[in-house]
Structure formats: structure tokens, C-alpha cells
Amino acid sequence: MINPLGDFIVGFGGIFTISVVLILFFIGVATFIFRRTLLHMLMGVELMLNAVNLSLIYFSRLHQNFDGQILSLMIFVVAACEVAVGIAIIVKLYKRTGTIGVETYTEERG
Amino acid sequence: MENSLILFIVLLPLVGAILNGTVAATNAFRKKEIWGEKIAGIIAFTAVGISFLLSLYAVFVKMSGLEYISCTPYEWISIGELKVSVTFLIDHLSAVMLLVVTGVSSVIHFYSIGYIHGDESSVRYFSYLNLFVFAMLLLILGDSMPVMFVGWEGVGLCSYLLIGFWYKDDEKAAAGKKAFIVNRIGDFGFLLGMFLIFANVGTLTISGVNEFFHANNSMTFFWTNVAGICLFIGATGKSAQIPLYVWLPDAMAGPTPVSALIHAATMVTAGVYMVARFHGLFLAAPIAMNVVLWVGAITALFSASIALYQNDIKKVLAYSTVSQLGFMFMAAGAGAFVIAIFHLMTHAFFKACLFLGSGSVIHAMGGEQDIRYMGGLKQFMPATFITFLLATIAIAGFPPLAGFFSKDEILWNVFASEHGSKIVWFIGAVAALFTAFYMFRLVYLTFYGNFRGTREQEHHLHESPKTMTVPLMILAALSVVGGWIGIPKLLSFGAIPNFFHDFVGPAVEKFGHVHIAHYSHAVEYSLMALSVAIAFAGWYIARSMFRDLKHKLPDPDKYTGLPRLLWNKYFIDEIYIKYIVDPIKSLSTNVFLNISDKKLIDGAANGSASGWNKVAGIFSKFQTGNIQAYGFYMIFGAAIAVLFVLFVF
Fold first, then answer.
1. Which of B300, B392, B465, B476 could make a disulfide contact with B431, Cβ separation 3.0–4.6 Å?
2. What interface predicted TM-score (ipTM) does this complex get?
């Protein structure tokens, strides 16, 4: 039988962790795609990032080196910055148009 | 690097050109002079002068006892079998050219300082002049055909720039364009010849090409003749031979020192030099040799006959140049490359002297070039008169001046060589008669009799400054003694060695010897006497007709018959315009511009643009402006990528 998660994921712990990662990730995706406010979409993005962080930490443990953990720390920092900028933009947008509904912003139509 | 001296010879003029060119550009841009004509002239003259001294050193010290010296600064192109390295080679052939070019250039640069005095763009002038010397040196010393071609194009460019130097005058600018375009036609032939040679020999070095024919024992292949003729087409463009000579008379629109340097002494002889350089190929191509011989002979006679009736002092000299170049090609076509180069050298001396003399005359006449309005100038400008007369005697072929030895040798070689022909000899003899006649006509009309110009011009007449007369004297002296290094053994009874032949001979006779039919000495002496008699006849006729001109010269527009034909230069320009230029122009406008350019090319470009616009219109529908849709596309794409990785790999 093909293990859809890959042959390198072994044992209950592995399957559990990866399942959590995937669930978190898809919650993030769904949030990004279906919620109609910019703030929620930003939160979805954060969820996806954290899911990726979790997987990095797990694989770092699996391979017995710390590269993945260090990378995840860096991702925290970048994510924090991104949130700061993102929220600032959202606040600005709100002040300009009075709404943060995503359907208002259609300037990118081709 | 070995012999890096050669590099200095070549690059010094370029340095001068860059210096003066930069300053000329800034002067024009800032409307303020960094330096003027004086410093520009000194820089230009110094660059060429040092180059000349270094050439003397290279030829007489470095090269003594050696067959050649060379220097390879760098490899230019290296693709598979095609290897082109920038190699400068001084062998005994290019040594002569090198000395003639740098020497005459130095003299003319010096003369230019006086001539161009007072012109607002004199700095630009000197920069062009130096650039020309650089290009000419590339042409002469380059041992590979591409380098030679760069020089070949470079001198064409400088010729264009200098003919159209006073570009605000439409006529002069048009003359420059004409020279450039006609030269391009010839250059195309040169390129084709180069391709043919590379395809068949597999090398582009000139020595390699000559070696190839030597190794193959001068075997004649079909392509040899074709390549020879292609190269010769290049030579007809640059050296103003039939059918591409039409640009040279118009080129007289340029400043007179330019006419002397480029259109008499150096650039126009490049074709002769090139034929001599490829002697290995030409000796293996009998048909091409015959073409060279006949084209040279016909050009010599044709343009000499036109010169008989011209009234513009520079036009006469221009047609005379074309005719003398014809003589050189006659010699080359007869296989006498040494003599061709010898005549090239002596011609450089006396024709440069004649042109500079005419410049001095025009200067004194305040820009007047028509000899009908001159006359009696010898008492006003004795130095110009004497030098001009000496050069005239030299070109007419009176012994013991330079022209006699070279011209007589040419006629003898054409008469006796296996590649020559008696008919060509006769044509050459008639052309020589014409030469003596029109040159003395020029002298008598310009310097003898009474002054026929306006009173104002007469008042203005004066001898030119020292910067102009000293070069005249140098060149006149060379016209007198220049031939003495090539006195045929027969004439001196073997007492004086024929230095020129001994010097150049080995370089061009290495690859195949031309058989000269054996005639008794009596024949040779009588031919020599005949050519002296021809010169005297030409002089005598001109003297009896023009010495004491009492009546007014007839108005050229009233000529009929042959004079009318000659005055109008056989209507060649008109024929070219009607049957070649105009059809090409209408073809270009009607077919190439209106149909192929506007409809096909523009249509294709615009059509493809609007086509892509439509296609893009379809895809732009996906861009709804909804960010969440974009997010969906991204996830969807990523999912496909993941599935692809999981199940296909």
C-alpha cells in the first residue's frame, strides 16, 4: 500500500504530527479563500505559515539536526514583520474606504 | 611582445585621432575651445611624423637581413577552424607602402597646417586625417584578410568623412555619399573574394593564401579566377577603375590636402597594393590577370582622354590619377608587381606634389579652380610653379625624373611579359601621350600667358606660406630623385644596382616567376626611346597650342562631336543615373518600400501584435480582480504539482 504521506513518515507520532500540519494548513487555505474580510485572510496566511513551521520542526527532529528549527525561528520573525505590515495596510485601507471586505478591492481585474 | 615597435607605428595616429576627435567634439558641444587648430595640427603632425620615423627604423634597422618582421598583439576571432589574429607584418612589399604612406602623410599633415588655417572645424579635420592614416596602416600591415578589410573599410569611411568635410555644402556632402556608396559596391566584391578564399583554402592569412598556391604549384582551380575577379572588383572600387571610377573625380570636393593624400597618393593605391599582396592567387588565375590587365589599360586611356578637355584644375588631376592607377593595374596584370608598386611610389610623390601645388594655386586664386581664368601665375608664385613643373615633367615621363623609369618599365613589361599584350602596350603608349599633353596643357594654362581672372583676384595673388611651399619642395625633390632607386640595369649598363627591384622583388616573386619574353637589347632601347619621344610629342603639342594663348578658350557648352563627348566625360554619370541609379531607386520605392516593407514587414509585425493582443484577451478573463480567486488558482496549481510529484515520479 502506498503511504500517501511518504515512506519517511514512520510510526504513530509521525502520522499524527503530519496530520495536524495538514489540517492546520488546509484550515488556513480555506480561511484565505472563503472568508470575506482582509483581516481573516491575513490570519489564514498566518495559519499556513505556522503549519509549515510545525512540519519543519518535526522533520528537524526526525533528521536529528537543528537546521529546520533555526529556519522556523526565522520564519517567525518574517511572519511577525509581515503581520505588522499587513495590518498596517489593512488599517490604511479601512480608513480610506470604510470597509475591509475583500470584494471592494478589484483593481487587479484584467 | 616581439617587435612591439610595429604596434606603436600603427597606434600613434589612432591616439592622435582620439585626442583631436574628443577635443573637436567638446569644442563643438561647449562652444569653447580646449585647443585650437595650432595644437591640433602639431599633435596630428607629430603622431604621423613619429610613426614615420619609427617605420624608417623598423624597415632599415630591425628588418635588415630579415625577410619580414611581424607582431601579433592578440587573437581576434577563434571559432573552430576560423582563426583570425591581429597580426601586423612588415615584409619587403608592405615596407615600401608603409614608408610611402607614413612619409607622404607626414608631409601632407605639415602642409595641412597652413592650408586649413582659419577653418572653424580644423580640429575635426586633423582628427579625421589621423584616423585615415591609422586605417591605412591597418590595411597595409594587416596579415589577415579581416584586418585588412577593417582597414579597407576604415579608409573608405575617412574618405567619406573628408570629402564631405564641408558638409554644409550639399554638393560636397553628396560627393562624399557617392564615394562611399560606390566603394561599398567594390567592398562587396572584396568580401565575396574573401569568403571564396576561406571556403577553398581554409585560412584567411594573406601569407597563408600565397603559401597555398605555392604549395599547389600555382595550380589553377575554377574558383581561383572567380576569387581573383571578386578581389579585383574590390580594387576597382577603391582604386577608381572602370566601372567604379566615377566617385574619384567628384571626390575633389574635399579639401585639397585630402585629395593629395587620400585620392592620389595612398588610399586609391590600396587596390594595386592588394593585387600585389595576393600575387600568389593572381598568378594562379590567368583569366583574372587578364581582366586586371585590360581593365587597367582601358581605364588608363579612357580617363586620360577625359582629362584632355577638363577645365577644373583638380578634375584634370583626378582623371590623371585614375589613368595612372590604370597604368599600375596594367603592370600588375602583366605580372610585374614590382613595377606596379614602383609606379605607385613615384606616382605618390609627383601626384601628391601636383595636388598640393594645385591647392596652393587655388589658395592664391581665392577658391577659383577653373584654369580658363588663370594664367601667368609663374611670376606671382615661383616656388609653386617650379615644383609643379618638376612634378609635371615627372608624370609626363621625361628622363631622368621618377615617372620615366616607372612608366617605361610598365610599358616594357606589358610588351614583353607572357601575361601582357602588344595591343595593351599600344593603348598604354597612347595614354602616355595623352598624359604628357594634358599635364602640359595644365601647366601652360595655369602658369604661362597673361592673367585671365578678375582684377580683384590679380591683386590678391601671392605665394603661399612656408608651411605649404616646403612640403611642395620635398615632394618635388622626391619626384626628381625618387625614380633613381629603380633604374633598370639595361640603362645603367649594370653599373648601378636596381635597389627597388632587389628590395621588393624577393617578396613578390617568391611564389612563381613571370616569364618575360626575350627580346634583343635593341628592341628594348627603341621602346625606351619611343616613350621619351611620346613624352616630347605630348609636350610639344601642348606647348604649340597653349603656350601663348592669344584667343579665348572656347566655351565648353559649344563643343560638338568628340570634344563634347570628352567634356561631358562620355556621359557616364548620366548613363549610370539613368540606367542604374534611377531603376534601383524606383525599385526600392515601389517594391521594397511600398510592398515588402509597408505591407509585408509592417503587416507581419502589426498583425502579430494584434493577434497576441486577442489571445491575451482570452487569458485576461481569468484575472477577475478577486484576490481570493487568485489564491484559489495558486492552491489548485500547487495541488496539481504535488499530485504530479507523488504519482508520476
1. B300
2. 0.82
